[in-house]
Amino acid sequence: MPIFIPVLIAGFSVASAAILKRQLRKPLRLVVLGQRTTGKSLLINSWQGEWATPPATNTPVKITPIRIDTGEKVLNIEKKFIFKTFHDISGRDEPITTNGNELDRAEAVLYLVKATTLFDEERRTAGHGQHTEWVRVQLDAARLADRATAARRVVIVVTHADLDPRSDTLPWERYCDHVAKQLAHVCAAIGPPDKTRVVVGSLADPERAATLTNDIIGSLL
Ligand SMILES: Nc1nc2c(ncn2[C@@H]2O[C@H](COP(=O)(O)OP(=O)(O)OP(=O)(O)O)[C@@H](O)[C@H]2O)c(=O)[nH]1
Ligand SMILES: [Mg+2]
């Protein structure tokens, strides 16, 4: 499941971003993780300008270098990501325990979680055990704490918000706060507050995928 993405970020346009510019000019080693069907392939394909329902990833898919222009929404920075060769790998396996030192060397990690997993957990009644997906999220948090020690940022990327009924009933910002609060102990298990971020969104269509990508980039700054 992990996707190893050395990222080169360039093209900043504001002086206030000078420090960030210096920090981010260097290629960034990024690993993307998440259970099956959390949206890893769809997200990565969208970065390549592709939009189609991806098949489940069984064997790792090698992605050739790609470049993304994501607009100027974050800090008025024009963001151009150059992704060098990396892999899109299945979420079926236990990625964190099986993938060599990629995670140990990662400078940033994206960990995808479905909003529906959080909804199911909230709805769970006393006496019922935690769902497998939610158990795995917490296990993975502990593994990230152990393994992603070089990462200066671990971003929990909540996908499938479009399928979470709470996103229909709460104003968007309150919904995002609510989801972030649900994940607070997961973040705390991963690392200190300056290391972890939560972004919430959807990959239901290219527009929402672009918005989520933009928020992801913002969370890496
Ligand atoms: N509605 C909705 N569908 C999504 C979203 N994200 C992903 N999907 C769908 O969920 C399915 C699984 O997405 P993938 O990108 O293949 O998931 P993956 O994490 O790569 O899964 P594996 O390769 O099995 O590890 C696809 O049908 C996607 O179109 C989302 O935010 N909203
Ligand atoms: Mg996949």
Describe the overall structure.
It is a single chain. With 221 residues, this protein is of the alpha/beta class. 38% of the residues lie in helices and 22% in strands. It has a single domain, classed as P-loop containing nucleotide triphosphate hydrolases (Rossmann fold, 3-Layer(aba) Sandwich), CATH 3.40.50.300. The strands form two sheets. Strands 4-5-1-2-7-8-9 form a seven-stranded mixed sheet, sandwiched between helices. It has a two-stranded antiparallel ribbon with strand order 3-6. The two termini are 24 Å apart.
Write the layout of secondary structure elements.
Blueprint: E1 3-10, H1 18-24, E2 28-34, H2 40-47, E3 61-63, E4 66-69, E5 80-83, E6 86-88, H3 95-98, H4 102-105, E7 108-114, H5 115-123, H6 132-147, E8 153-159, H7 166-169, H8 172-182, H9 184-190, E9 196-200, H10 206-220
Parallel strand pairs: 2-7, 7-8, 8-9
Antiparallel strand pairs: 1-2, 1-5, 3-6, 4-5
The structure holds guanosine-5'-triphosphate and magnesium ion.
Residues 40-41, 54, 57, 88 line the site of magnesium ion.
Tally of extended strands? 9
The CATH top-level class label = Alpha Beta
Listed once per kind, the bound small molecules are: guanosine-5'-triphosphate, magnesium ion
Q: Would you tell me which CATH topology applies?
A: Rossmann fold
Please, how many helices?
10
User: What is the name of the CATH superfamily?
Assistant: P-loop containing nucleotide triphosphate hydrolases
Q: What is the CA-CA span between the terminal residues?
A: 24 Å
Number of domains: 1
- CATH architecture descriptor name: 3-Layer(aba) Sandwich
Low-confidence stretches: 6-25, 72-79
> What global shape is seen?
globular
Measured by DSSP, the beta-strand proportion falls in 15-25%
Average pLDDT: 81
Strand arrangement across the biggest beta sheet: 4-5-1-2-7-8-9
Query: What class, by secondary structure content?
Result: alpha/beta
Radius of gyration: 17 Å
Largest sheet: 7 strands, mixed
Order of helices and strands: EHEHEEEEHHEHHEHHHEH
Helix content: 25-40%
